[in-house]
Design goal:
CATH class of the largest domain: Alpha Beta
CATH superfamily of the largest domain: Dihydrodipicolinate Reductase, domain 2
Mean pLDDT: 96
Order of helices and strands: EHEHEHEHEHEHEHHEEEEEEEHH
Structural class: alpha/beta
Number of domains: 2
Strand content: 15-25%
CATH topology of the largest domain: Dihydrodipicolinate Reductase, domain 2
Helix content: 25-40%
Number of helices: 10
Bound molecules: nicotinamide-adenine-dinucleotide
Length: 330
């Protein structure tokens, strides 16, 4: 029997979820909800399925097996917790929540629930990232020394929930930075400590449009994450330096993953598996987890660690670091 999927939040990213569930084997999209009547109408016209302006009414009416939560982050905890308590599986968009308290509450609900919670850190399923992980784990790079993850691109966020601190919990760092931090965790392990700068340079919004975070992993590797809605995509770059050389992705979206060997002084290109998109893999993984009762690879525990690292970075950004002393003599 097919799994019945419902979508809460019918904006931008909901398109990937609707497509994902429509194309996945053994899942039917049965309903969608949004506070925007226009979004509900569009959903009903395009999908031929009922739309609701209140997500609780939708759950009551259609009783789905799983819910995709595609709302702004401050709504992720209340909707997820409600669904988990009803035994409904949840695929919740990243970041897990707008703050650490919300993410902790979600993690508690997930521990107590019979249903699964997966947080949609889709880049864990990206072909070039999977190749990078393989080359880290087969010893090609050797001991990791320095990680750089730069996710940049020009995006006008005025009026978007990402510019509203209460709804999003932060700007570029919470949004794209959480993907980068989550990828560090996926590839190299947990983060031990962080420093950060986060500022609003070119856009009229409450949250950061440029942020840089430096950190140390529990494994001793140093790291840097740079994000910005006001920095062009020419700055997007992924590199990891290790004892045996450098792993690099010059084209993040299609690869190849390149390795420069300290021994041979040459570059080797590794092609990546692009037979499935990161979204296709993500949805297939969640269905497999539901069917086999497995814990998703992006779960409450991993997403909570990412949320804590981003939260610590914003705290560190308030501190502004140590002042440089002006020399008054000599
Ligand atoms: N995984 C990714 O790569 C990726 C990409 C884009 C967005 N996202 C995440 O997805 C989430 C949504 O982002 P978006 O770009 O789609 O935002 P969006 O603003 O385009 O869409 C959000 C939708 O939620 C609706 N909404 C607000 N309050 C609601 C409520 N109480 N009930 C039902 N619907 C409600 C809004 O009306 C809007 O239609 C964010 O957490 C974002 O970070 C993830």
């Amino acid at each position: 029997m097919s799994l019945r999927a419902a979508i809460v939040g019918l904006g931008n990213i909901s398109g990937a979820h609707i497509k994902g569930w429509n194309e996945a084997e053994g899942v039917d999209v049965v309903a969608g909800a949004d506070i925007s009547e226009d979004a509900v109408k569009r959903f009903e016209e395009q999908q031929g399925k009922p739309g609701f302006t209140d997500w609780r009414d939708m759950l009551e009416a259609v009783k789905p097996d799983l819910v995709s939560i595609c709302t702004p982050p401050f709504l992720h905890p209340p909707i997820s917790i409600h669904c988990l308590e009803q035994g409904i599986h949840v695929l919740c968009e990243k970041p897990m929540a707008a703050d650490i308290a919300g993410a902790v509450a979600m993690a508690r609900a997930a521990r107590e629930a019979k249903a699964l919670l997966m947080v949609a850190y889709c880049h864990r399923f990206h072909g070039p990232i999977l190749k990078l992980k393989e080359l880290l784990h087969d010893g090609t790079l050797g001991r990791p020394l320095f990680f750089r993850g730069c996710f940049t691109g020009l995006a006008d966020m005025e009026g978007n929930h990402r510019g509203d601190a209460a709804k999003a919990g932060g700007g570029a760092l919470m949004d794209n930075g959480s993907h980068a931090v989550d990828l560090y965790q996926f590839l190299l392990g947990k983060i031990a400590n962080v420093s950060c700068r986060a500022g609003t340079f070119l856009q009229h919004m409450e949250t950061d449009d440029v942020a840089v975070m430096i950190f140390e992993g529990e494994n001793g590797c140093f790291g840097e994450v740079l994000v910005g809605y006001s920095i062009p995509p020419q700055f997007t770059e992924w590199r990891i330096a290790g004892a045996n050389g450098v792993l690099a992705m010059e084209d993040y979206f299609s690869g190849p993953v390149r390795f420069w060997s300290r021994e041979t002084k040459e570059w080797t290109d590794y092609e990546c598996d692009t037979s499935m998109t990161r979204f296709e893999r993500q949805f297939a993984h969640f269905i497999e987890c539901i069917k086999e009762g497995k814990e998703p690879i992006s779960n409450a525990e991993t997403a909570l660690h990412t949320q804590r690292a981003i939260g610590a970075a914003y705290q560190a950004a308030l501190g502004k670091g140590l002042p440089v002393q002006q020399r008054t003599t000599g």
